[in-house]
Each structure stands twice: as structure tokens, then as C-alpha cells.
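Sequence, C-alpha cells quoted for completeness.
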Amino acid sequence: MEGKLGVRWKGKAVGSLVDPVPDMWYLTGSWEPADTEAASDFEGVIGRQDARQSYERLDGQWVELVEVDDEGQAHLLPAIVISLSDGRLWVRRVFSPEALARRPREKPWWRFW
């Protein structure tokens, strides 16, 4: 798998997974952060999470990987971040409907009041 996958966290673009290498459900690749506050927040949260626990329990931060096909159509691939270390991002793609049902949902903006 060559190229880049965009990474969205909490609805915001936070960077890219560059030249991702697949291994079953997992992807790992170079991390290219966006120059945004959301990207800094994302890196801080991921830096504090326990990679072993995220791997064993699959309870890390949820992201959406953005893949753009040859026609320019974007496809969202749900994933759980396992770790970000030494400039490499490691995620587990999520396919099962049962696991997807456990994904946290963001509150709509009108529910904050």
C-alpha cells in the first residue's frame, strides 16, 4: 500500500499515515502531523495512552482513515490508534459491525447547550 491516508480525529484532520504497511487488520506507517492545534492535541492524547492496553483491549482513540480513490472519491475507514512512537503511527482497522457499534459518537454541536 503506497501513498498517504488522511487521519481524522474527532471530525478534524490531524495528519497523514504515509506509505502504510498492512498486516492483517493493522496498518503502520510514517506519521505526518498537520500543523494544527487539533493535531497537537491528538499527539498529546496518543502519547499518554497505554499502547499495550490499546492493543489488548482495543480501547484506544478512534480515528477515520481517509483513502482517496482514482476517481477522487474519499472513503472513510474506521480504525483504533494503538500507538504513535518514533514518528510511526500504528492503527487497527475495524470492520465488524459489533465493534463499530461500540465506537463513541461525537455529540452534535447543538447538544452542547
Observations:
- Residues 4-112 form one domain.
